[in-house]
Amino acid sequence: MSEVYDLVVIGGGPGGYVCAIRAAQLGMKVACVEKRGALGGTCLNVGCIPSKALLHATHMYEHASHHMGDLGVAVSGVRLDLPKMMSHKDKVVSDNTGGIEFLFKKNKIAYIKGAGKITAPGTVQVSGAQVQTVQAKNIVIATGSDVMPLPGVAIDEKRIVSSTGGLSLSSVPGKMVVIGAGVIGLELGSVWRRLGAEVTVVEYLDFILPPMDGEIRKQAQRILEKQGMNFRLGYKVTGASTGKKGVSLKLEPSKGGAGETLDADVVLVAIGRRPYTEGLGLESIGVVPDSRGFIAVDHDYQTKVQGVFAIGDVIGGQMLAHKAEEEGVAVAELLAGQSGHVNYGAIPSVVYTDPEIAMVGKTEEQLKADGVAYKVGKFPFTANGRARANNTTDGLVKVLADAKTDRVLGCHIVGAMAGDLIQEVVVGMEFGASAEDIARSSHAHPQLGEAIKEAMLAVDKRPLHI
Ligand code: FAD
Ligand code: NAI
Predict the structure, then answer these.
(1) CATH superfamily ID and name for 348-459
(2) What is the 378 CA–ligand 1 centroid distance (Å)?
(3) What pLDDT score was predicted for residue 2?
């Protein structure tokens, strides 16, 4: 039997490691149990960070190969060095995960390597190099999520890959089929298309990126098609057979109809992620996951067992690293007697394609469904001076504001740097800003952000530059 911690966090991803750091800052004696062999969870090891390293590198490759000439920079002899690109990505991952270990040391957090199992409230058994038992006043489960499998399409991480395999292919496939036009499908589909693969995305629904605003996702689809990505919308994959030459996929229209086959060198399965609770011992303490496997928690992130909390992907909602982090901070502050809280209405979501696609708040479809009276303001990047200077005129900003109060209810952007641009609207929404508040704030010229100011002005039908 070992020492008693104030808090043991199971899972060292963005939810878990941030919770551990915040709790340590607040004076708690904290341990974090992680079985992966590295801190940072899905996000740092096989998610956000390696995908962005490849998205950036492949963007540079595509730019140098095809677009720099437009700016009068003649480039020749551009050549892909895939092993070097992959080793850059791997180094970024190891530097980042090592950085979390440093933060743990700085905050005096015990990093316990191994798989954690809750054997009783307040007791975690860790199976690592040896089996040890850790006692805690409180336990936070932050075990994250895993790839959703597709029946009939067995992932082997060679020919049929999940996002994890899709981040580490050893050569550029001639033909790649992506199943699922969600965030992973479009981001990793973009990576391999930029490197020369012929990419076809098969999507069950009649549109891409289901949670996004309808107008924005249509624009995004048009732009991605212009770049050479092919879409088969309204189709489902019913099976796959793998041979020496590649994979043959069986497709059917989602609404029924004649089947067909589609051949690929590599298939990426990206139809969502599911909560991960394997081996946690939930049943032995009486926590029963819901029908989709998520752990139910109350307003304070506590499960139905006192002293056992859960955060991040494993409790559902938006499966985003920053959402998990906010929950990690909130639960640590609640445990310290403070009033930790997450404003789910102002969590941004960004798809890192080129151009980026970003949103915060409600979509037009949601406002209609909720019966909310709203005003719309839009501004295209073609009318923004900086976008013209940068040759990045694709896309627009769309703002939705309350018809009576003018309060900003949502903002949707497809355009260069959309992920950075959305942040001013997030801050505005946190402070209850009206469209006029943001429209009257001075925006430096020439900046892409002026398109946000103009879209806010357009809510009141008075944009200046269109
Ligand atoms: P995780 O990051 O999944 O961490 C959970 C950790 O718990 C894991 O390391 C696991 O090994 C460990 N664990 C599980 N069970 C046990 C156990 N019993 N004992 C010990 N340890 C255990 N989100 C964004 O916001 N932006 C992005 O750009 C982005 N890109 C992504 C790209 C890809 C390819 C993928 C797959 C995901 C991406 N995400 C992105 C989503 C993001 O990675 C997740 O939302 C985030 O990692 C969730 O954090 P978490 O702490 O809840 O869980
Ligand atoms: P997703 O939920 O974003 O998209 C899955 C897509 O697959 C949907 O469009 C869905 O309609 C479709 N689909 C489902 N079943 C299908 C089937 N049988 N055939 C064809 N299409 C099917 O899931 P994805 O892309 O796997 O990402 C998982 C999670 O990871 C997301 O929740 C996302 O939030 C997170 N993530 C976030 C990123 C970011 O913030 N930039 C990047 C990558 C992932």
Answers:
(1) FAD/NAD-linked reductase, C-terminal dimerisation domain (3.30.390.30)
(2) 35
(3) 62
